[in-house]
């Protein structure tokens, strides 16, 4: 994009429309005042109108009546649980064009400010040759585009191709986890970083519901009546931790008994699909490191402890803490590779003994490399370290098959091993 020439072409318009005299202390990175930034945003919106495209239509689940046995023989207590409306998933196909227009406008405002400043000082408004070198022009262009992208997408990195409108979540009861609809799609699962993440394959995932946050200590206590977490002082809004896969399955069972719903652990394929950082895939190590600091608690910023859920930026689906804070159990039994895995979202069982189960996402204890969305960890189902937690999933409706294991899973054994409470990643 030829920012310099475009900026000069915009000067006549901007000098007469919404331009103010800029003091020397103007900020916002480019030296452009707030009112001029707002004028440029309005100009870009006028020049490039939003063009919204629906990715997944809005969905409303039907209400249902849940009945349980009453206290007296033969009596029944029934309660009505209303249906839930999930918003449509949309993308603005014109956002990139609007970013370019905004960046050009910001550069023009910057040049206007320079001319006004020189005029106020009684100096000639001749071009500054040092600012017109290819390197200087490229640097200003990149800075303007980065600011424009941040202003229009509220992110410093590349915008996702789609976002959940308002990232709306729903709760079915006071102690139920808030759930977000993850729109279905296909993605490349796995990577070439480790043999356990190979072979890379295309997996199709139907739309499903996933917890906006990791299950919290408050939610766990409301269902189980106790708190296994090592860091209870963190409070009810911190993720529950020091739980095993068996504990997680017991929690799901009791929550479903209380609510009449069908919560479950996500499958490994569902989890990795929902954890994708952006539609454009991973960036440079520097970009990924900066993004992790914004979105995850890990070894470089956690100060050696777990943190309340939702304090870091959500991912493109509106999900918080998909990387870091605590590892998250999934339904799948661990296999040494994806050889023989299905091309859908079903969880995998194991014919091997002893059976390990998969954890995803990394934790406050781990380094950046272990927080990759493709990274796989595994442990015995009774293991319960201080950075093991969970996040729940649900099918959108009864017609969609749940991605449960394709054969009988391990029996639930709530008892915790005395050796499974250490600090081993």
Secondary-structure topology with pairs:
Blueprint: H1 3-16, H2 34-47, E1 52-56, E2 59-60, E3 64-69, E4 76-81, E5 85-86, E6 89-92, H3 95-120, H4 134-153, E7 163-164, E8 179-182, E9 185-189, E10 201-205, E11 208-211, H5 217-224, H6 245-259, H7 268-274, H8 285-295, E12 327-333, E13 357-360, E14 377-379, E15 388-390, E16 393-395
Parallel strand pairs: 12-15
Antiparallel strand pairs: 1-6, 2-5, 3-4, 6-7, 8-11, 9-10, 11-16, 12-13, 13-14
Helix pairs in contact: 1-3, 2-3, 3-4
State the end-to-end distance: 47 Å
CATH topology of the largest domain: paralog of FGE (formylglycine-generating enzyme)
Strand content: 15-25%
Structural class: alpha+beta
Helix content: 25-40%
By CATH, the superfamily of the largest domain comes out as paralog of FGE (formylglycine-generating enzyme)
Biggest sheet architecture: 4 strands, mixed
Extended strand count: 16
Helix and strand string, N-terminal first? HHEEEEEEHHEEEEEHHHHEEEEE
């Amino acid at each position: 994009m030829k920012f310099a020439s475009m900026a000069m072409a915009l000067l006549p318009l901007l000098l007469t429309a919404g331009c103010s005299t800029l003091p020397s202390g103007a900020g916002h990175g480019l030296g452009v005042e707030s009112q001029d930034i707002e004028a440029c945003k309005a100009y870009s919106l006028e020049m490039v109108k939003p063009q919204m495209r629906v990715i997944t239509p809005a969905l409303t689940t039907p209400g249902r009546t849940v009945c349980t046995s009453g206290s007296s023989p033969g009596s029944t207590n029934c309660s009505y649980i209303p249906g839930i409306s999930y918003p449509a998933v949309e993308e603005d196909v014109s956002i990139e064009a609007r970013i370019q227009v905004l960046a050009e406008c910001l550069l023009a405002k910057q040049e206007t400010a320079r001319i006004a400043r020189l005029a106020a000082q009684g100096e000639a408004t001749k071009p500054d040759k040092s600012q017109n070198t290819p390197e200087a022009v490229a640097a200003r262009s990149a800075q303007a585009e980065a600011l424009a992208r941040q202003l229009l997408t509220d992110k410093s990195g590349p915008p996702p191709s789609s976002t959940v409108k308002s990232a709306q979540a729903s709760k079915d009861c006071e102690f139920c986890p808030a759930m977000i609809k993850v729109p279905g799609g296909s993605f490349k699962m796995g990577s070439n970083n480790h043999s356990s993440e190979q072979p890379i394959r295309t997996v199709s995932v139907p739309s499903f519901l996933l917890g906006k946050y990791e299950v919290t200590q408050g939610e766990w206590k409301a269902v189980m009546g106790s708190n296994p977490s090592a860091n209870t002082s963190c409070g009810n809004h911190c993720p529950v931790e020091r739980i095993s896969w068996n504990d997680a399955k017991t929690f799901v069972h009791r929550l479903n008994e209380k609510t009449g719903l069908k919560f479950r652990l996500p499958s490994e394929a569902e989890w990795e699909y929902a954890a994708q950082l952006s539609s454009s895939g991973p960036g440079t190590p520097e970009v990924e490191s900066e993004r992790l600091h914004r979105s995850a608690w890990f070894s470089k910023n956690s100060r050696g402890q777990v943190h309340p859920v939702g304090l870091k930026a959500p991912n493109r689906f509106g999900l918080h803490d998909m990387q870091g804070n605590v590892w998250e159990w999934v339904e799948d039994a661990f296999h040494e590779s994806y050889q023989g895995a299905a091309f859908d979202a079903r969880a995998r069982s194991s014919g091997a003994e002893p059976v390990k189960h998969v954890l995803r996402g990394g934790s406050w204890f781990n380094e950046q490399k272990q927080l990759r969305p493709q990274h796989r960890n595994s442990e015995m189902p009774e293991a319960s370290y201080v950075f093991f937690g969970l996040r729940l999933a649900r099918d959108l409706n009864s017609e969609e098959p749940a991605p449960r294991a394709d054969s009988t899973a391990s029996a639930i054994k709530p008892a915790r091993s005395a050796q499974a409470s250490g600090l081993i990643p």
